[in-house]
Structure formats: structure tokens, C-alpha cells
């Protein structure tokens, strides 16, 4: 991860013109040992003469973790006042001024205190990387944006703090810290993860055996897909310019003003990622109908989410939704189309030709996926 291209003049280190390298330690849940492993590797590098500092460490009162941090230089946190309460956050400016070779940053998905320069901690990390400082960071699998709905179905918990998938995709190295569900349960019961009063509640909720098994599978699969994607791109890197050829799958997610559009985008993004192909999101705007303020904000949120996944958002005006989708599919060489199940009643569906039937008649050699999404509660 380190090179010898740094020049030192007096007390000033001149950094090479390169982006810092990012190594992420990921696990299926709190307590698997991500932070401990990060600190362990940091100590080894420090012994080799690498200048390592702690940018942000959360021990959660875990004795072993706190002891492992001894001997590593912490960069003091900044103090911010919010609603009359003084809180601390990572001091990104101080880290950059300190100019270490490597900085350790815990809990990558953390949301910063209101009033901080950046909303999310991963944005602070991106700034640190941009000035040429390497970063080690930690995150749990449930904080990956496209897995949000999957994790909610598995555990019943909606995770509020998330990072875009691109953060994981752009990392130079992703290491999964894997332990068995049995080992994790033992750690929890021994008080190595949470305080004693939280143990029984945790075992009955997030740390249920079936939850841990499913989350572990997600973590292992995510890293495997990440490695396969890198290998695919390396093996298929073009050596000369060739005309466009639709070798990769190309995914088009068709969204509407219904709330389930967010779930649809996430599902489509996962498929695009698995297939190593581009993602497109399409919204067909009926020129005869004005969107409400709430609907407009919803579409803007969908556009933002699409771009977080590295996709291209397409917005067209047309009274004929099927025609607009077919045109976009042809223009962007789409091979897979995602649409949500009909929100109309069964009676109305019988009276009108469905959107799916129209698409099947007008499009050839394109797979159409009808995605079942959770119904809004009444």
C-alpha cells in the first residue's frame, strides 16, 4: 500500500501526486472484530516505520479494543455544539494538516453532527484520500445502501446510516472480518460487545441466530462480488478502440411517483452490480398531469439515489408510458427492464391492457422483471 515516492524537506513532507489508498474492513454485525483487526494491522505498519494516526476510534467501552489502541497517536476531535449540547466529531482539517501516511477511521457510515462541514463521515474520508493520505476504515454490511431493503426484511430493522455502494466499489481493498454466528453469540454473552443490560434484548432481536447467518452470507457474497467485478474489468480491459458492442447486461429501472420506486432502484442496482453492467433509471412524466410538491421531491430523491449507485437518470415527457420505455430501451441498448407490480386494482387491470403486455409486444430480446415490493401500510 505504501511507496517510496515521498520527498521530505525539513519538517515538510511533499506528498506524491496520487489519491490515497482505501482499505475497508467489513463485517456482518457489530462485535466481529473489524476495529480490533484494523488496529492490529496499524501496529504492524507502525513498527515498519509507517506514520499512522487514529482519526476516529469508537471503542464502545470494549476493553480489548481500547487496549489495542494504546501506542497509536490520536488526532484530537473537534467539538461542535448542536441544540445546546457539545458533541465531538472527527477533525478532518487537523488530520490533513498533520499529514500522516495512514489514518484510521472507524464507523464509515456515521452521520456527522449538524453544523459539521460534511454530512457523512465517508465524505470526510473521500477528502482525506483526495489529498494523498491512505485510509483504513470499518463498516458493517447492513450499512451498504443497496442492501438496505434486504437487511430490513432479514432483521426487521431499517438502518438509517448508509454509504453508497460506490464507496465499496472504489476501495483499493475490502477485507471481510468473518466469525461464526456461534462465536459472535459467545462474545455477546461474555459482555464483549454490549453492556450486560443489553445482552438479552440483543439476542432476541438483531443477534438472532438466523439473522446472523443471513447477514454473514451477505457480507461474504458482497466481497466475492467485489473481487469478481475487479477481475472481470481487468480481464476485459480494451487494448484498442472498438465500436460499441452490447456485451454487458444493461439494466433499466422504470420508476413512478409510488414510494416503492426506491426499493425498485435498489433491486435494479444490485442486479446491475452482479452483472457488471450499467444502470439506468427512467421516469416518464405525463405532460397533462402536474406533479405535487411531494411527488417532485420523491422523483428528485430517486434521481439522487440512482446517481449514488453510479447510474444515469433519464426523464422524458410522454403520455404513452409503454412507448417511452420502449424508446429508452432501444436508445440505451437495454437488456434487462425492471418495473414494479401494478398499483391498480385487479378490476382496473382487467379492463386495460397492462403495461407489461404492451412492452412484451413491442420489445424483443429484452428480459422484463416484474418486481414485487412491500405495500405501504394502511
From TrEMBL:
<dbReference type="InterPro" id="IPR027417">
    <property type="entry name" value="P-loop_NTPase"/>
</dbReference>
<keyword id="KW-0418">Kinase</keyword>
<dbReference type="InterPro" id="IPR014729">
    <property type="entry name" value="Rossmann-like_a/b/a_fold"/>
</dbReference>
<dbReference type="GO" id="GO:0005886">
    <property type="term" value="C:plasma membrane"/>
</dbReference>
<feature type="domain" description="Signal transduction histidine kinase osmosensitive K+ channel sensor N-terminal">
    <location>
        <begin position="18"/>
        <end position="227"/>
    </location>
</feature>
<keyword id="KW-0902">Two-component regulatory system</keyword>
<dbReference type="InterPro" id="IPR003852">
    <property type="entry name" value="Sig_transdc_His_kinase_KdpD_N"/>
</dbReference>
<protein>
    <submittedName>
        <fullName>Histidine kinase</fullName>
    </submittedName>
</protein>
<dbReference type="GO" id="GO:0005737">
    <property type="term" value="C:cytoplasm"/>
</dbReference>
<dbReference type="Pfam" id="PF02702">
    <property type="entry name" value="KdpD"/>
</dbReference>
<keyword id="KW-0808">Transferase</keyword>
<dbReference type="InterPro" id="IPR052023">
    <property type="entry name" value="Histidine_kinase_KdpD"/>
</dbReference>
<dbReference type="GO" id="GO:0000155">
    <property type="term" value="F:phosphorelay sensor kinase activity"/>
</dbReference>
